Amino acid sequence: MINRFRSMTLAGIAAMALALTAFGLATAPAATGAGLRNCVDVTGPQSGRVGCYELVWANGIEYRMTFSNTRFSGSAPQELDAFYVVGAQTDRPQGAPPNTFAHDHVVRDVPQQNHGQYTTKLQGFFVLCSGQGIVSGACVPSWSSLGGDPLPFATTVNGQPLTSTSVVESAASAGDVALVNLGPGAVIVGTISGH
Predict the structure, then answer these.
(1) Which of 47, 76, 138, 156 could form a disulfide with 176 if both were Cys (CB 3.0 to 4.6 A apart)?
(2) pTM for this one?
(3) Predicted confidence (pLDDT) per residue in 31-85, tens digit
(4) In sequence order, what are the residues at sequence separation of 6 or more whose Cβ sits closer than 8 angstroms to the Cβ of residue 105?
(5) In terms of residue numbers, what domain contains 143?
């Protein structure tokens, strides 16, 4: 699925993104009586050790996706589902300061035959407005710095929110956004267990 779309691998951005917990999965909470915490809320030595959750968009609906760990250590299959990191879609971003930049996540539609549940291996991608998308006005960026020059994270394309993979991938096909592959260090396993 992902191989159909133009993607760029920018190792420098990926390394920086992972180091800065740019998409909120390089941190994980300690096991406490409070249950799982949002991945972006935990920093320090507990990072990447136990499960956490992130909110994600799938077909315009917000779900809670849990991660047993923040890195997949097995042999990654050739085809991975995308874990898109986009600009914030609402005034309550799924990932926010102080531990990360304001952003949201988009994953494929939840298979209906699974009754709102699925587990999948995911490849991290930044969704950035392309030069074409910015110049034409088709893509509205949210400029966010990951420690260097700000990057134009896509928030809308042609007035549409980026809350489904079909919109993200259509915008990529049209050249209005660039999908930046965060590389093999950004393969994770996520589970949605109902709406």
Answers:
(1) 138
(2) 0.78
(3) 344 578 788 776 666 666 557 888 999 999 999 998 875 555 555 556 788 999 9
(4) 23, 24, 54, 55, 56, 57, 65, 83, 84, 85, 86, 94, 95
(5) 2-25+51-193
